[in-house]
Structures are given as structure tokens and as C-alpha cells.
Amino acid sequence: MTEAPATNVTLDEIVALCKRRGFVFPASEIYGGIASTYDYGHYGVLLKRNVKDEWWRAMLDGPDRIVALDSAIIQNPRVWEASGHLAGFSDPLVDCRTCKLRFRADKLEDSACGRKPSKHPGETEECDLTEPRQFHLMFKTHMGPVEDDAAVVYLRPETAQGIFVNFKNVLQFARVKPPFGIAQVGKSFRNEIVTGNFIFRTREFEQMEMEFFVPPAEAEKWYERWIERRREWYEELGIRPDYLRARPHEADELSHYSSATSDVEYRFPIGWQELEGIANRGDFDLTQHANHSGEKLEYFDQATGEAGEAYVPHVIEPAAGVDRALLAFLVDAYDTDEVEGRRRTVLRLHPRLAPVKVAVLPLVSREGMPEKARAVYDSLRQRVGAEYDEGGSIGRRYRRQDEIGTPWGVTVDGQTLADDTVTLRDRDSLEQVRVPIVGLADELAARLELPWRSPKLA
Ligand code: ATP
Questions:
Q1: Cβ contacts of residue 313 below 8 Å, gap of 6+?
Q2: Burial of 154 by CB count in 10 Å (0-12 exposed, 13-18 middle, 19+ buried)?
Q3: Is 192 in the pocket of ligand 1 (CB under 6 A)?
Q4: What is the distance in A from the centroid of ligand 1 to the CA of 187?
Q5: In this predicted model, what pLDDT tens digit does every residue of 402-416 receive, in sequence order?
Q6: pLDDT in tens, 67-79
Q7: How far, in Å, CA of 355 to CA of 47, rounded?
Q8: CA–centroid distance, residue 321 to ligand 1 (Å)
């Protein structure tokens, strides 16, 4: 099978667009920034919210029983003892005595030698690497004003454990029985040794995780099903299929608790990289927390009465990163073309992901057009995310909307004042059609629900 050509956009182009249009920019910038930490501006927030909304929609409105949870970032430290994070949550690292740089021992092939960046660490004669050593990845802080050991707590390195420790609560309150899932979206923190590639790997990031509890005999079936579903989710949201793959882990990549894991990977400008991991975690987590807390974390099927047996459900976990998914959507959407002899940059985002759905633009800012356009904007904004813009030439305003990925543009012109019609412009085909203002909100809301395919595939 021949692979699709590598994506022709560079990460630098994405970083520049994000900065230029206020999607994402370095945190604490006026103080010189802080390593690999980013803030999201207006369009970044809207895009990120849409990614999360789509995830919630897939989880809560899908065919299975899945309930929502929002657990605390700081938990009792014993949670991390039970989960194994306190003991084992570390990546082996090597230092180079020559260039003084530090690398993840399992990622040497993705790293550049400090002296000769065209080579990997350990490949030149000068490289002098130490043996791999373990480092803690959890951020440590103190609860309460006195910094003594009793009050040491950690920022969660994943959202999943908050789900496991609430297993009993959810069973009780949500009246669920396996197979069922608990889903959570929230910030996680890892003191990663090697960060970089923009928002691909940072120390503070957001995760979308779902733990699906199943009868042990059904684990394999659900594992396969969730790999497929999660791959489809990215595809339905417009990622080109050739740039997406599910890759099963080799035996030596598996975590100690996992009998099988597959990654959904995207072909980033930096190569194939993980977007999401789907793991068959067995009964490891519930058993660990039961042993450490003394609480029974099992399911007893009352329908089978006396004959029924309590059992510890097995867990299938799709664990995704919000920021990483957002980066993949941006990379996959980024395109350039020529319109009327001028180069334009356009984000061909799925309309449901686009930060703004429709821009309302008066052709010129006089002759009553701005007032009319504002009225159109007001009639649309309750139904679909809309933006009003009257500053500058119409061409420049379109280019700005193209760069933030707005799928539709509505222009109010002289004819609008006479017959209450507007032109509706399509971001991708550039087709402009004349449509009545009446019914426009319904039309756009309906378009948002249609299946969508990246025009880059045409
Ligand atoms: P990696 O191998 O890239 O370090 P991981 O296998 O440790 O990732 P998981 O623990 O499975 O990651 O976390 C689930 C998801 O959370 C990842 O697929 C990724 O999308 C996201 N994620 C994990 N670490 C980071 C990070 N440092 N920055 C941004 N996203 C992250």
C-alpha cells in the first residue's frame, strides 16, 4: 500500500497562524514566557470547546450508557499510591555528558543530538550517554500553609483515577450496570522531561477520558469496538483517513496493567504520533483501589438474585488529549490556494468544529448596510455562532474569516436593502448564492448537522 504524501504544512506555519489569529500563544509572554506553556485566545477557546462538545456528544448521546463526572484535580495522595503513579510514573531518562542535554531513553530516535542535530543522541563518537534513570512526572505541592510532609499532595497526572475512585458512587447514584462508562474531561499535569512541538506535549494539558466497565468475558469485544469508534470519531470530524491509523502496541510497549493497547495516531508534520490510547486495563485499577481503600469495588447483579455473583468489572479506556486533537484538526485543515490572483490561507475545518460558523459582513460601511447587517447578525447569533465585521475591504474580511475557518459568509449589499436577500459564500467552494434572510438561520443550522468530508480529499 502506498502512503499518502506527508502533509505539506509545517508546525511553524501552524504556530504562526495560531499567534496571528489569536488561537494559541505562549503563556506569560510579557515576562519572556514559560517553557512549553500556552494560553488559548478567543478562537482557540471556541475551537477547543467544540472539540470537547463533540467528544461529550459522542459519549453521552451514543448507543451506550455513559455518565459524566468532574472529579477534583487534587485527590488524597493515597489514590496515586494505589494507582502506581507514585512508584512508577516516570520515564527513564539519559543525560549526555558531552552536550549536557537530557533525553527520554525510549525516544532517542525522535531527539536531536545537541552537537550534531542531524544525528540522534548516541550516534556520534562524541556522544556520552548515561545509563537511563527514573524521574518523577507528578507535580508536587502542599496543601495548607505549612510545608511539611504530611501535607504533600499532587496535581493529577491523568483524569482516569478520579473515575475509578468514584466507581461506587456512580453505581449507586446513576443506577447503571455493566457495560457502562464514566466520562470526564479536565486538566492533567505531568512534569514531562521533554516537551515541545507546540501544544503536542506540554506540562499542563487537557484530557478526555472514558472508563468503560464491562463483564470480564466481554472485554475483548468492547476493546475492539472502542478502537473502531474512536478512529471513526476523528474521521467524522474531518480528519483525512490516510492520515489516521490505529496501531496496536507491541508487547514491550504495554503498561504492566494492560493486556492490550492500541493508539489512534495522526500523521503530524513530525511523523506518526499518538492522538489517543485505547487500553484494555483488565481489573487492575478497581482491584488496586479496593485493596488500598478497603472498600469493595465490584458489581453485584441483583437481577440474578442469590445465584448471582459479585465480580470486578474489566475496564476499556479510550484516553485522548484535547490539545493534541485540536492540533491535529488544525494541521489537517490548514490549506493555501489562490483566489483572484491572491494567495489565501484557509482552515478547512469541519463546520461543527469551526470557532465561528457564519460571518455577517456589510459590503461597505455606509448606505444603511451596517445597520441591516447587524439586524441579520442578531437574527442568526442565537442559532449559530456568528460574528459581525465591518472594518476594512470585503476581500480582507473574507481572508480573515478563511484563516479562522469560518465556513460561511453572509454579505449584505445594496440589493439586500431592496429585497431582503443576501449573498451566502462558501469557504471551500467559494460559491456565492443569493438567498432570502428569512429561513437563513434554519438553513445554516441544518447544514451543521450534515455529514462532512474534507475538500482536501476531492
Ligand atoms: P505519550 O506516550 O505521548 O507520552 P501517553 O501514552 O503517556 O502519551 P496517556 O497517558 O495514554 O499518554 O494519555 C492519554 C492522552 O493524553 C494521550 O494520547 C495524549 O493525547 C494526551 N497527553 C498525554 N500526555 C500529554 C502531554 N504531555 N501533553 C499533551 N497531551 C498529552
A1: 178, 213, 214, 215, 216, 283, 286, 298, 299
A2: buried
A3: yes
A4: 12
A5: 999 999 999 999 999
A6: 999 999 999 999 9
A7: 5
A8: 6
| Tens-place pLDDT, residues 279-315 | 999 999 999 999 999 999 999 987 665 656 899 999 9
Contact by Cβ (8 Å): 21, 403:
yes
Nearest Cα residue to atom 12 of ligand 1: 277
Ligand 1: centre distance to CA 299 (Å): 30
Identify the residue with better confidence: 112 or 353: 353
For the chain, first and last CA: distance in Å?
20
46 CA to centre of own chain: 13
Residues in Cβ contact with 66 at an 8 Å cutoff, skipping those fewer than 6 apart: 59, 60, 180, 181, 182, 183, 210, 212
Question: Quick one: 234 exposed, middle or buried, by C-beta within 10 A (0-12, 13-18, 19+)?
Answer: buried
Helix (H, G, I), strand (E, B) or coil at 452: coil
Q: Residue 84: its pLDDT value, please?
A: 85
Q: With a 6 A CB cut-off, is 277 part of the ligand 1 pocket?
A: yes
The rounded distance, in Å, linking the Cα atoms of 16 and 249 is 34
Task: Give, for 93, the enclosing helix (H) or strand (E).
Answer: strand 90-95
Q: Is 205 in the pocket of ligand 1 (CB under 6 A)?
A: yes
Residue having the nearest C-alpha atom to atom 1 of ligand 1: 274
Verify whether ligand 1 is closer than 6 Å to residue 402 (CB atom). no
Ligand 1 near 282 CB (within 6 A): no
Cβ 65 under 6 angstroms from ligand 1: no
- For residue 46, what is its C-alpha cell? 471556541
Q: What is the DSSP letter of 379?
A: H
- Name the closest-CA residue to atom 8, ligand 1: 274
Q: Is the CB of 321 under 6 A from ligand 1?
A: yes
Phi, psi of 62 (to 5 degrees): -80, -170
Contact 79, 165 (CB under 8 A): yes
